[in-house]
Write a structure and sequence with these properties.
Shape: globular
Strand content: 15-25%
Bound molecules: 1,4-dihydronicotinamide adenine dinucleotide, magnesium ion
Helix content: 40-55%
Order of helices and strands: EHEHHEHEEEEHEHEHEHEEHHH
Largest sheet: 10 strands, mixed
Strand order of the largest sheet: 2-1-3-12-11-4-5-10-8-9
Length: about 325
């Protein structure tokens, strides 16, 4: 059986790191059919539309999508694409690898971020010259869906090796209704399923995480909190070139490096392909090939520790040299 993968390079270093991830997928014993589509600044400049309907439809119909990055039009591209694949959770692992200069080398945390509501639900209004408001949306259904996913994630042993269960980060002491509902649903689903769950107020968590990241494994957050706190964790592990992410839906998903188009180095062939390659590892795992996902991770880990390395990690290798080293280890 062959999987149809929508490939959207986007702009900037998307054109360099996505082909690297595809070279790695091609080296696996799994059949893929890659179908390319356009999105981002370049296609917007040509046609006026950063996300052509044909690209949206391709992502919606494919088995999974691999996305690079878009420039100024990123929000116009990625938000509808997450919707196209029906994503309700954003999975963002932040792991420090041997051989990489990390602020906190013991960091190994996976964030599960609610991906559809909260303050990002899009209900912002300008009510007068002086007043703007935002309506925060929290439903029990979305909170419970996230909770079920978090429990399965933990039960399947997909989190870091240390620790059991998950931690809910919230601010229910102030946002009693919205975060109160979120917290209650997360903890009650965990209780129903017999999964260990504890909680942290998100501001205290933002202090405790950098001081002692080793105490956290899987962290479940509302949308905005997950965005900010996972970026904080990214800072602990050595930079943007390393961090993958997955937008998971029920029967479809989109995988993308956390970084953007890196205009300062785009076109030079020196971008770090690690984040895109690790996103591809998450893609094959989503398709059920857990062993192959681990093979990619092991190959990446070995290259990060022995080299070659790209400039952002203190080396002088090109994107292609690093990719070839990963493929060779596979
Ligand atoms: P950025 O992630 O593109 O770059 C930040 C810094 O990290 C730059 O110095 C860059 O060279 C470096 N960097 C990023 N990825 C790297 C890699 N793989 N290898 C080596 N170095 C890497 O973020 P920035 O500069 O804030 O945004 C640039 C553009 O990207 C903007 O137009 C922004 O809208 C867009 N963007 C798109 C995203 C998306 O499509 N999901 C996410 C973030 C930004
Ligand atoms: Mg962000």
């Amino acid at each position: 059986m062959s999987y149809e993968i929508a490939v959207i390079e986007g702009d900037g270093i998307g054109h360099e790191v996505v082909p690297a991830a595809i070279d790695v997928l091609d080296a696996l014993d799994v059949e893929f059919e890659f179908v390319e589509a356009e999105a981002g600044d370049a296609v917007a400049a040509e046609t006026g539309d950063p996300l052509p309907q044909s690209t949206y439809d391709l992502a919606a119909d494919a088995d999974a999508t691999l996305f690079g990055a878009a420039g100024e039009t990123a929000a116009d591209v990625i938000l509808p694409l997450r919707e196209a694949v029906g994503s309700f959770v954003n999975v963002r692992p932040a792991k420090a690898y041997p051989g990489v200069d990390a602020v906190r080398p013991e960091t190994d945390v996976v964030f599960l971020r609610e991906n559809t509501e909260g303050v990002y639900a899009g209900h912002e209004d300008r009510l007068s010259e002086d007043l703007s408001t935002l309506t925060r949306v929290v439903t029990s259904s979305a909170s419970r869906e996230l909770a079920e996913f978090a429990c399965e994630f933990v039960e399947d042993g997909r989190g870091p090796d240390h620790g059991d269960g998950f931690t809910v980060a919230h601010k229910a002491n102030v946002m009693r209704e919205t975060d109160g509902r979120f917290r209650e649903e997360l903890l009650s689903v965990a209780d129903e399923r017999g999964v260990d769950a504890d909680e942290e107020l998100m501001d205290a968590f933002a202090t405790k995480l950098p001081l002692d990241p080793g105490q956290y494994g899987v962290v479940v957050c509302p949308n905005l909190a997950g965005d900010v706190l996972s970026d904080l964790a990214a800072g602990l592990v050595g930079g943007l070139g390393l961090l993958p992410s997955a937008n998971i839906g029920h029967d479809n998903a989109l995988f993308e490096p956390v970084h953007g188009t890196a205009p300062d180095i785009a076109g030079e062939g020196v971008a770090n392909p690690t984040a895109a390659i690790l996103s591809a590892a998450m893609l094959v795992e989503f398709l059920g090939h857990v062993e192959e996902g681990q093979q990619i991770r092991d190959a990446v880990e070995s290259v990060l520790s022995d080299g070659p390395r790209t400039g952002d990690l203190g080396g002088n290798a090109t994107t292609e040299e690093v990719t070839a080293a990963v493929v060779e280890r596979l």
